Amino acid sequence: TADTEYIEKRLERMTRLYAKGSVAKDQLDQIQSEAKKARAVQGAAKAAVDVSRADLERAKKTLQDYSRRRTETRDTVNVASPADGSIFKIYRESEGTVAAGEPLMDIGNARNLEVRVDLLSSDAVKIKKGARVFFKRWGGQGTLTGIVRVIEPAGFTKLSSLGVEEQRVLVIADMTSPSDEWRALGDGYRLEAHFVIWEGKEILQVPASVLFRSGTKWAVFLEDNGKARQRIVEIGQRNGLTAEIISGMKEKERVIAHPDDSISDGALIRRRK
After folding, report:
1. Given this structure, which CATH class describes domain 198-273?
2. DSSP secondary structure string, the chain?
3. What's the confidence (pLDDT) of residue 70?
4. What is the architecture, at CATH level 2, of domain 114-195?
5. Which pTM does this prediction carry?
């Protein structure tokens, strides 16, 4: 598309300027991110066009079969696939009467996969279209990358493993990693998705396990010459494992992990070996 061509030209120009030292690295990173998103959107649009063409071919085939049946009678009927690809699933193994519209098999292109993730609705509202996704624990080496294409507007109810009803929302993402890296993946395979809902540079962060409440504020215990010192801190973004420290601490200060009631301000401590 024209937008993609424009962004690609900007990327080429910015790359040349960066090589000459005329622009900063973060400017180059930003245009590279925009170019990656534009390529993903273009790929999704192309896939939608391919689906529409397949629907058109299927409709034409239906009309051809109907016209042929009116003029001739035969024992077998050739059924042409509306698209190239591999057979994912066969619904009917044995002969029998087939009703109009009954599915016979699933056919798809394994190199044009999309990832569908059902998230809690409270988590889905934090994700935006175009957000980056990292795919882990998929069975292969390394981490795969993707980009959010669709966040379904309607949710559904699903029972958790504990039997609790949860409201879920389907989020669809496209792969942006080279297909050679995930060629072993197929339809219905499982992976673990990590969505980027916020990011920053040079962020001071600590494990969430070092934080505790002191009245209405957050606090940590720091190591100070063999003694524990309580420090009030202000936190920002959290992901359940780590927390951003906005104020109250400096880089390289040592914190006490998993503080309990036995630790108080000024208590003697020693480092565990």
Report:
1. mainly beta
2. -HHHHHHHHHHHHHHHHHHTT-S-HHHHHHHHHHHHHHHHHHHHHHHHHHHHHHHHHHHHHHHHHHHHHHH---S------SS-SEEEEES--S-----TT---EEEE-TTS-EEEEEEEHHHHTT--TT-EEEEE-SSSSS-EEEEEEEEEEEEEEEE-TTS-EEEEEEEEEEE-S-GGGSTT--TT---EEEE-----SS--EEEGGG-EEETTEEEEEEEETTEEEEEEEEEEEE-SSEEEEEES--TT--B-SS--TT--TT-B-----
3. 58
4. Beta Barrel (2.40)
5. 0.56
